Amino acid sequence: MRTVIAGGGLVGLTAAASLRLIGHEVTVLEQAPAVRAVGAGIGLWPNALREFDRIGVGERLRALGAPIETWFYDPAGRPLRAAGYDADDHRFLLVPRPALSDLLADRVGRRNIRQDARVTGFTETDREVVVHLADGTDLPADLLIGADGVYSRVRAALVPGSDAVEHAGHIAWRAIVPAGRERPRGTVVTVGPARTRGGYAPVAPGRTMWMVNQFDAGRLDGSKRDRALARAGHLAEAGWHDELLEMIAATPEEAILENRIMLVPELSRWTGRRVALVGDAAHGLSPHIAAGGTLGVEDVGVLRSALSAERDPATALARYEDVRAARFVRVREHSAAVEKAADAAEFAERYAAFSHWMLTTAPQT
Ligand SMILES: Cc1cc2nc3c(=O)[nH]c(=O)nc-3n(C[C@H](O)[C@H](O)[C@H](O)COP(=O)(O)OP(=O)(O)OC[C@H]3O[C@@H](n4cnc5c(N)ncnc54)[C@H](O)[C@@H]3O)c2cc1C
After folding, report:
1. Confidence category of residue 198, pLDDT binned at 50, 70, 90
2. Which of 22, 222, 270, 364 is most buried per CB count within 10 Å?
């Protein structure tokens, strides 16, 4: 089967590696001049690691990243332990994004990835799908996987009117810095007043990632560093998190990532006869549940499994859509519940409920 994947991000590259396992001839079309993820670190949960094991990169991934348990604290530094949940519900692998992207691109095979190749749309029939590119050329294929992120052109053609919308006022700041300022326990995430969360975690040997998020962030004044520091101030009470403030203050302005969070609306369909959406293209959500990438990798496992079980692509894609759309009804409910938590304790409890649910109900593909 000739399969074109629009987008060489985390999910597109994983899809390419995974579908090659079942014999697809894969071409990844990436609009950027290089396949290299922008960003700091990403937390990958065990349900994603299973797919990475399957495509043969799990061991190297574990060597690249740092296994962490993320527990929440209140702004006075008191640990928040959600009753009924344990370390398994809080444990993931934190991996530097550029290294992850390099590892996956090597696995896919660089010759199978075309850079500077922007997809603008497609035309599908029962027999094939023709992928349209911005340079005016067309690429015929048997299958098109839209892994082109929240601003997906494939989604725009498949589900007109499904543009991503801003998660009003929700901003995230992050950077990776040399380790050395953090507390010995290594991983600290605090839920503070003014709808602020933040902290830090080891992301690789000798390197620490800090992050600060705020819902309803209001006016943004000053430099990115000033803005992040203003929010991190909510998390620092009586000396708790002084080290986070120091880390941010010492981070060069150009190393700080500041993202407005975008959301993909619930879609009326995820697939066509020969087209399927995966990852953020299908379900870009707020990162306050820190699992969008992980769930995108889960999409890939379900898609691979459906395509290897069914000869007819349309039947396989329909099966994929049934499974994933149903799962995302629950993901959206959990995400909303975490977002609406009234205080730090409720946030920690609802977050643990989400991760426990995600891990214990993950598809076995
Ligand atoms: C602050 C923050 C923290 C997060 N933390 C976590 C976490 O800890 N754990 C987790 O699991 N998830 C996390 N997420 C979510 C995760 O980052 C995303 O869900 C994941 O990166 C989505 O991957 P993707 O491949 O679907 O999309 P993307 O990473 O957006 O990749 C899309 C790719 O497609 C390319 N592209 C776009 N349009 C076109 C086109 N028309 N033609 C060709 N190529 C195109 C882009 O250049 C890009 O390379 C976080 C998100 C944010 C914002």
Report:
1. very high
2. 270
